[in-house]
Amino acid sequence: MIQGERLWQRLMELGEVGKKPSGGVTRLSFTAEERKAKDLVASYMREAGLFVYEDTAGNLIGRKEGANPDAPVVLVGSHLDSVYNGGRFDGPLGVLAGIEVAQAMNEQGVKTHHPIEVVAFTDEEGARFRFGMIGSRAMAGTLPPEALDYRDANGISVAEAMRRTGVDPRRLHEAARKRGTVKAYVELHIEQGRVLEEAGLPVGLVTGIAGLIWVKFTIEGKAEHAGATPMSLRRDPMAAAAQIIAVIEEEARRTGTTVGTVGQLYVFPGGINVIPERVEFVLDLRDLQTEVRDHVWQAVAARTQAIAKERDVRVTTEQLQDMPPVLCSEVVKQAAERACKQLGYPPFWLPSGAAHDGVQLAPLCPIGMIFVRSQDGVSHNPAEWSTKEDCAAGAAVLYHTVWQLAQGE
User: Fold this and answer.
1) What confidence category does residue 130 fall into, taking pLDDT thresholds of 50, 70 and 90?
2) How far is residue 330's CA from residue 184's CA, in Å, rounded to a whole number?
3) Cα–Cα distance between 118 and 54 in angstroms, integer?
4) Rounded distance, CA 114 to CA 67, Å?
5) At residue 408, does pLDDT exceed 80?
6) pTM exceeds cut of 0.85
7) How many CB atoms sit inside 10 A of residue 249's CB?
């Protein structure tokens, strides 16, 4: 059935696209590296016997026709873009495993009632514009118009970046699928944590995806000489930022389930001997329960204003994303559970703390996820790794899950 060696070779080959001297991969959306990756994956899709096209949002799609071409499609896939200096498995494993599933079916002459489409979604990570899941939002018909105005570090907007790579922002609405045209969405992904490793299992089944909010903080103070300004007279936004980040950690720890991260921080003007005039950073806050996550955010917001008053700085916040938690569909979960049992793997259930494109597709169709064990739980890092055997095991579970979903009426 699944050819694990073929899947592995494609993973390794794709991992060379955007590879940096550190060994990490950087493939940002609407860049030459992403285009090269899409072209390579499109060649894999054609080798698999799929009809290949891109929709108006730039989502790369390979279609295996069903006995009833008008039946709702079973979607399977993930994304090809990466974070800065990321790994080679996050995203590509789901796309390439989907291609392997379709290719194995074609090689074995397997026919399904429903069409199967393998999709590589545009800009899942959001690393370039600090706003992600553009392709899946477009497919679900929920991409807000203001998203096109977000800009990268060089001041290039999403709309401008799209135009530079042949995507017409005026036609994004054409990528939206109507309800009832998609039977289900299934994604294979590395776990990005250590739960499966601790359990000694190669594959796990996902119960749901944690909800997240991204909030941009802008802290304005007064730029002055670092040596000539006494500590008591300073309006230092960097010191305020440090205090706020400590508050974020404290409030997130308090719940036992919430995670709060600041992974981006910009200091202006950025001189060694200059008290900053302005500091910007982005908070990533997640929890499986919306009310818990929102309570943490409210506590952080209240304490932030107190810090601003104490330090005589101005703090403004802008919410960049708000994605509620999403539970995986019983239909997909049951198919994946049967697939595990058929292959001799114990069904092991766990939540996803990381967000995925399925969050955006949940209003459109039933969604589900399958996890593959991550070595040491490392992800978004050059050391990200899953073994050839575990990747093949996950692809095999995906095969039987997709087959079940695509067979029924």
Assistant:
1) confident
2) 11
3) 11
4) 7
5) no
6) no
7) 14
Task: Please determine, for residue 409, whether its predicted confidence score (pLDDT) is greater than 80.
Answer: no
What does 125-184 look like in DSSP terms, one character per residue?
Answer: S-TTTS---HHHHHHHT---GGGGG-B-TTS-BHHHHHHHTT--GGGGGGGPPPTTSEEE
Query: Of 349, 361, 320, 331, which is closest to residue 151 (Cα–Cα)?
Result: 320
Residue 340 identity = C
What's at 180, amino acid-wise? G
Q: Percentage helix, strand, coil, to 5, in the chain? A: 40, 25, 35
Structure tokens at 372: 């593959």
What is the amino acid identity at position 352? Answer: S
The DSSP output letter for 383 is T
Q: What is the dihedral of CA 298, 302, 307, 312, to 10 degrees?
A: 120
For residues 186 and 357, give the distance between their C-alpha atoms in angstroms, rounded to a whole number: 10
Between CA 237 and CA 278 the distance in angstroms is 6
Q: Are strands 51-54 and 60-64 parallel, antiparallel or unpaired?
A: antiparallel
Question: Which residue's structure tokens are 């399904």?
Answer: 112
Do 320 and 216 contact (CB within 8 A), yes or no? Answer: yes
Query: Strands, DSSP E only, in 148-305?
Result: 182-190, 203-209, 211-220, 259-268, 278-287
- Across all residues in the chain, what is the average pLDDT? 96
Q: What are phi and psi of 322, to 5 degrees?
A: -145, 105
The continuous run of DSSP H or E covering 372 comes out as: strand 367-372
**Contact (CB, 8 A) for 71 and 96:** no
Residues in a beta bridge with 217: 281, 317
**Cα end-to-end distance, the chain, whole Å:** 24
Smallest Cα–Cα separation from 34: which of 79, 96, 76, 99? 79
Angle at CA 382, nearest 5°, toward 57 and 117? 30
